[in-house]
Design brief:
Length: 87
C-alpha cells in the first residue's frame, strides 16, 4: 500500500525511470544530433534554403561514397560496350 500513496505524492516512479533513461540516451548522442532531441525547430537547423543545406551536408561527407563507385562502374561498362562494338 505504501508505494501507491508515495506515487500519488511524487508521481510515477516508472515514469521517472523512463525519463532518466531517455535523458541518458540524449546525452549519449553526438552534439549535432542533440538539437533534434531537444526540440530545436527544423528551420533553425536547415535554414531558409533546404536544398543548399542538403548540398552543404553532402559535401561535408565528400569522401569516397558508394555513388562514386557506381559512377565509375557505369562509366567502365559503357567504355567496355563501346570497345566491343568497334570490334
Amino acid at each position: 500500500m505504501a508505494p501507491k500513496w508515495i506515487e500519488l505524492v511524487t508521481g510515477s516512479l516508472e515514469q521517472k525511470k523512463d525519463w532518466k533513461r531517455y535523458r541518458a540516451r540524449i546525452e549519449a548522442l553526438p552534439e549535432p544530433r542533440r538539437a533534434v532531441a531537444d526540440g530545436t525547430p527544423v528551420r533553425a537547423i536547415a535554414g531558409d534554403d533546404p536544398v543548399e543545406f542538403a548540398e552543404t551536408f553532402a559535401q561535408s561527407y565528400s569522401g569516397k561514397r558508394w555513388i562514386d563507385k557506381e559512377r565509375a562502374r557505369l562509366t567502365k561498362a559503357i567504355e567496355d560496350a563501346e570497345r566491343a562494338e568497334r570490334r
